[in-house]
Amino acid sequence: MPLLSAQNLSRSYGPVDIFTGLSFSIPHRARIGLVGPNGVGKTTLVRILAGQDEPSEGSVQRARGLRVGYLPQEARLDSQRTLWEEVSSVFADLIERQQELARLEAQMSDPALADQALEAYGRLQDEFDRLGGYTFELRVRQTLAGLGFGRTDERRPIQQLSGGQRTRALLARLLLEDPDLLLPDEPTNHLDIAAVEWLEAYLRD
């Protein structure tokens, strides 16, 4: 079964038809480029596929449980977090386990609690390792670096970032979320050549 199927999609604004009669499907592991001049409805179509907009006619069928990641051309990322906190929020569950491991480590220094803490620590550590707990910070750092952020940017508040930087921050978060279907709308607008090459390699792999 494809990830997504569209049947007879049309979108109109008043008397103006942006597009009509589009039918297609997106299979697993497909890499599809949507190409066309300005004003033909590329962004409108992507928004419909992402569930951000509705077609005037036709329907979109998505696989059950499909996780969609949508990157608009200009991200509206409004957050009180730093860049690192925002992107790392993808791994909130692992961060919680990491904090619990630190708490158990502290308990192991107490003779009265050491045996019980050690047993709980062993179980949690195995689970943490299996879920990628010892590599997620490296993945975050590599993704931010690949998209052109420096180490000093990691602690900067999102509110201090430019519009282009916020778009790159949202792209980093989406890549780390690893959605089943990623729908980026002109993702290279705010990337330099090195970052474009990194993104191409990431998507290829």
Please describe the structure with a list of short key phrases separated by commas or semicolons.
205 residues, alpha+beta, Rossmann fold, 2 domains, 3-stranded antiparallel beta sheet, two-stranded parallel sheet, 5 strands, 41% helix, elongated
Describe what you observe in this structure.
The protein has 205 residues and is an alpha+beta fold. It has two domains: 4-66, P-loop containing nucleotide triphosphate hydrolases (Rossmann fold); 83-204, Rossmann fold (3-Layer(aba) Sandwich). The protein has seven helices and five strands; from the N terminus they run ββαββαααααβα. The strands form two sheets. Strands 2-1-3 form a three-stranded antiparallel beta sheet, covered by helices on one side. The chain has a two-stranded parallel sheet with strand order 4-5. A hairpin with a 2-residue loop joins strand 1 (4-13) and strand 2 (16-26). Helix 3 (92-107) runs antiparallel to helix 4 (114-130) and helix 5 (136-146) packs antiparallel against helix 6 (163-177). The longest helix has 17 residues, at 114-130. The relative contact order is 0.15. The mean pLDDT is 93.
